[in-house]
Amino acid sequence: MADNETLECVTEHERILQEIESTDTACVGPTLRSIYDDQPNAHKRFMEKLDARIRNHDREIEKMCNFHHQGFVDAITELLKVRADAEKLMGQVTDTNRRLQDAGRDVTAQTEEVIRCRIQQRNMATTVEKLQLCIPVLEMYSKLKEQLHSKRYYAALKTMEQLEKVYIPRVSQYRFCQIMAENLPRLREEIKEISMSDLKDFLESIRKHSDKVGETAMRQAQQHRTFNSAVAKQVHTGHYSKPVYSLSGRTHTHISNGLLTHDDAGDEEEADEEVLTAQDLVDFSPVYRCLHIYTVLGDRETFENYYRKQRKKQARLVLQPQANMHETVEGYRRYFNQIVGFFVVEDHILHATRGLVTRAFTDELWNMALSKIIAVLRTHSSYCDDPDLVLELKNLIVICADTLQGYGFPVNRLFDLLFEVRDQYNETLLKKWAVVFREIFESDNYSPIPVETEEEYKLVTSRFPFHDPEIEKQDFPKKLPMSQSVPQIYTQVKEFIYASLKFSESLHRSSTEIDDMLRKSTNLLLTRTLSSCLQNLIKKPHIGLTELVQIIINTTHLEQACKYLEEFITNITNVSPETVHTTRLYGLSTFKDARHAAEGEIYTKLNQKIDEFIQLADYEWSMAESDGRASGYLMDLINFLRSTFQVFTHLPGKVAQTACMSACKHLSTSLMQMLLDTELKQISMGAIQQFNLDVMQCELFASSEPVPGFQGDTLQLAFIDLRQLLDLFMVWDWSTYLADYGQPNSKYLRVNPATALALLEKMKDTNKKNNIFSQFRKNDRDKQKLIETVVKQLRSLVNGMSS
Asked: Is pLDDT at 781 greater than 70 in this prediction?
């Protein structure tokens, strides 16, 4: 066992020694450590083994040195021999080198000169090469400066782009190129600022030139429309053949809107003028240039936003009218010219710039403008009271709408606005014609028109459709039943229709619609304006009975002429009156109402005149006996009524009869009220007799048939109440009255007990006052008792009626 362990130990030590000999000294540590980790005292045995190995190697080294020692000695001997030859050779080399250095010194100097020249030549070639690269850059930069100086900014931007992308990168290592590269952004900003300044100048210029642009565009549209109208009239001859009269009485063949002259020579000159467009009047190059510049600079969106924002601001300024625009047509024309000019420019920009403005933007701008225009025109047209100015406004609206419609803008709302303007126009016409009618009525003499000759008769009938076979058969001189105001009013109604027709032209409406508008406006003239003037005329205090009679006659003839007015409108519009939707004229009701008002005023004035005469009555109610003749005031009243009713012969029969009956009833009522006046306390029998004489005159007047047409005693029945009352007191037939009271065939059927009682008490009081000694006379005492008895019975009747 111990032998085996010794053998293993020896084998391990041998392995370690071999490992130490073959391994790098840096790795010996772990190997040596393994020796100390083995069995105790193993390192001693290893040290012994190591010493034996060292001694073995020393013996091998010694053997080798002994083997090579003679060769080493021989080599040293030979080396000593060579040293002498080497020193000799060294001397020769040194000498040769010295001589060579002396000989090559000149060559070296020349060689250095050649090298220096070659270096200069190379530097020059390099410089030329670099300059050839730099010269195009400098030329381009010089070109850039020249372009900037000549304001060719778009070309300058292209040059900058070439410099940045092509030329400067080739020589970017040089300082001047870096300076150039640093300057280019600054130059771009300068170009942007300059182009923006040009754009601002353009915007300011276009704001000033919009008026001229709009005027030119509207003139061209007007010329085009006039040409089309002329062609249409040649095709449809006879349509609207009536001349169109202005409100001032002049005749025109063209619509007067201020854009064209009225004479044909002026039209021909304008037709010969060169047709100008927006680009002929406005230089759009600043917009194009600025748009290109911003597009090249990649900032197109900023430019578009700025342009649209500024144009919106300008649109608001253009749409803001002057405060006194409604006073003159020039104010309206300038307003429309600016609006049309603005949108003509926008339309040109839309089609010429490809995206600077879009259709959506222009539509939005137009819708905003349209709302503002309509609001402005509504406001300002409401201030206008001149129909000529309203008509000019309508023409301007039409030509403005036609012009913008030609550029593709929707204008239906403008044509709808024209209906409101038409109403305003009709209102101004109605106001103007109200003044005309009032002047006609004020200047009329309200007497039949005297006609001396055939020419005068034809002149009147040419102005008014009057046909009366009986009057035509009469010899000259003769009189026409109506007064001078009738043909004047008829003529003015026709002039009003002409004036209304002027507004209907160029509205792109059918003949039926125009016919309907004319008839409606004429109806307004008849039913509102003329009717109001007639009503006011009838109510005027200075219009007497004669004038009222003439007014009734006039309205009758005007009523008969309404059918001719309808024919007149039909001839103008060529629309058959049998058309389903044709509006009828309401003149018949207008003149009937006026006639009824005049009739009522006749009745009122007659009664007022009767009251004036009644107020002149001066009865002596205590007289003992009557004068034997009628009172003077009553005779004057009857004479007045006779002369008045003679004037009524031209009136329709029923009117005259009604007036006469009304006057008699009012006279009877007034006389009855005079008897029963509460302030009248006493009435004598003599006063009753005098009053009876006056009533008899009234009855005689009624029986004389002052107005023909009454049957029998119809007119006398107006005084029947007075007659029965007076007969009762004159005859003193109380027994009959009291006995027959309430019977249908009573002699005093129309005498009311209360009326008889009131009058009887006035007579009773008179008897007491005037006959203080009547109690001593038997007859007077009996009469007084009778009166008291009758009074009691009448009171019982009155009380019975009230209960």
From this structure: no
Write out the DSSP string of 273-310.
SPPP-HHHHS--HHHHHHHHHHHHTT-HHHHHHHHHHH
3-state secondary structure at position 579 = coil
Q: At 126, list the tokens.
A: 């390099």
Full 3-state SS string of 615-668: HCCCCCCCCCCCCCCCCHHHHHHHHHHHHHHHHHHHCCHHHHHHHHHHHHHHHH
Could you say which DSSP state residue 40 is in?
A: T
198-202 LR contacts (CB < 8 Å, sep 24+): 198/286, 198/289, 198/290, 199/286, 199/287, 199/290, 199/306, 199/307, 201/286, 202/283, 202/284, 202/286, 202/287
119-125, long-range: CB < 8 A, 24+ apart = none
Q: Return the number of other C-beta atoms located less than 10 Å from residue 742's C-beta.
A: 8
**At 787, phi and psi to the nearest 5?**
-60, -45
* pLDDT of 151 above 70: yes
Task: Choose the weakest-confidence range: 62-76, 158-172, 581-595.
Answer: 581-595
Q: What gap in Å lies between CA 607 and CA 667, rounded to an integer?
A: 8
Beta bridge partners of 729: none
Give helix 175-235 / helix 264-272 axis angle, nearest 10°.
140
For residue 334, give both structure tokens: 């300038």
Q: What is the mean pLDDT of residues 777-786?
A: 66
Residues 6+ apart with CB under 8 A from 774: 767, 780, 781, 784
- What is the pLDDT confidence band of residue 191, given thresholds at 50, 70 and 90? confident
Residue with tokens 């749409």: 319
Express the helix, strand and coil content of the chain in percent, nearest 5 each.
Answer: 80, 0, 20
CA distances from 271 to 213, 266, 275, 508 (A): 18, 9, 9, 24
User: 795, 780, 798, 787: which is closest to 762 by C-alpha?
Assistant: 787
User: Three-state DSSP class for 430?
Assistant: helix
Structure-token pair, residue 793 = 């019975």
The verdict on pTM exceeding 0.85 is no
Q: Of 769 and 241, which is predicted with more confidence?
A: 769
- Kindly tell me the sign of the dihedral angle through the C-alpha atoms of 693, 694, 695, 699: positive
Under 8 Å between Cβ of 440 and 402 = no
Continuous segment of H or E residues that includes residue 451: strand 449-451
State yes or no: cis peptide before 487, omega within 30 of 0. no
